[in-house]
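TL;DR need structure tokens for one chain.
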Amino acid sequence: MSEKKQPNPRETTVGLAILKFVPLVIFALLVIVAKLDLLIAAPLASMAAILVAMYVNRLDFDGVFDFGLKSGASIVQVFYILMFAYGVAECFMATGVGAVVINIALAAGVTGKTIAVVALLVTCVLSIATGTSWGTFAACAPIFLWLNYIIGGDVVLTLGAIAGGSCFGDNIGMISDTTVLSCGMQDIKIIDRVKHQGVWSVLAIIVSVIIVFVLSMSQPGTQGNIQDALNNIPAEAYAALEEERPGALILLGQVAEGGTPIYMIIPLVLVIATAFMGLNTLLCLGSGMVSALILGYAAGTCTLDQWLNDLLLVGFGDAGGWSIVMMLWVAAFGGIMNSMNAFEPLAKLIVMVSGKVRHLMSWCGVLCLVGNVALADETAQIATISPIVRNIVEENVEGSEEDMYKLRVRLATYNDALGVYGSELIPWHCFPVFFAGIADAVYPIFPGGINTTHIIMNNFMSMVMVASILLLSFTGWDRFIPGFGIPREPAVTLRKK
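>> reply
TL;DR here they are.
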């Protein structure tokens, strides 16, 4: 068997450095301008990257594509966790876990002064329970927007609160695909990242709640009724949800009935508790799926056949049918781009402007945000930028194995937080576009229609999250937040060049 040919790259010139970036530009144009699905855009961009890499590295097609295959193989373990996460999300959405969260919050009643705050807190918890920002938004937008209409609250403020809260669990939830992927790309444990950013995330919620509450003070104190809100939802809105997020309809039906037992919150508590006990992630997720079946059967929300075929099968199918395939292509794209050191000039610039390790880390965070702007998809950003920032840190920072692991935890936090929350502040990103589309469909009476600007300008939680993590990292003030600090000089140092 012949030995694989090793790359013999051409000498880097300004023209060659620009050429290396062409596949990334193509990727961005396909997503942002042509508005192609990632499942199409990623393979096309990968083909472009292969052609460029063949020229740069002086390799044939097989030699270049091998880098893509190795990159995809490196995250195979992530896919097993991802399948379980999608399965748990379907179980929690359909068996009543999500409905209990909403019913508990609404039982106390909401007014024009409190509806935006309540919407923010409910969506934060619900997104953790379901692991999906899109599903959470689709389920909560009809409830809170029409409840807002009845009590005379600020529609756009409530809309921004729903959008911001919906992404909380997508960023930190154990069953979120972005959580799983960001941790897998940095080779860290999910629970380590959750513990790392837990206090910071809660503090960010508190700050966001204060801002939203202050802005709501001028609204009326009229109390609304959830049944009135649900009765006002037009048939066209239900049709839109059926097409975009059918699971949200199940949750809405359970909220309308209002009879879901409070013990359906147990599966969520069990997943979180077992994770903090240090159990294997698959065991944690498995406990959630099994407990959702047992308790859902007792509550009458599911049977064994429904659990197997309508929930687990759908969840596993969604993961395997779209997410995993898409991630394989995005990972391949990243591997091919890295094979020709496409991002080397950018890495050198980051190192050059960094006087301390925390500055280097902060610029890596900015790079994650820029990647999100360019690719308009948080998953693509995570899969593409994760290996880049990891290489930057590992090649330019010296420290113990334990300290370097902590730095990778922060990198995973950057990738996810600036991917998920940053996406909500980018007008052309899939997040605000989807949210605006759903909101406009379920609440068609808003003058002139709802657009991405309404969401971005009122999404104070995303603003707080993005601004705080970059500021705290750059200044070193993150050390004042329990569990959130990163190793500092002299424990870690920049390599001398």
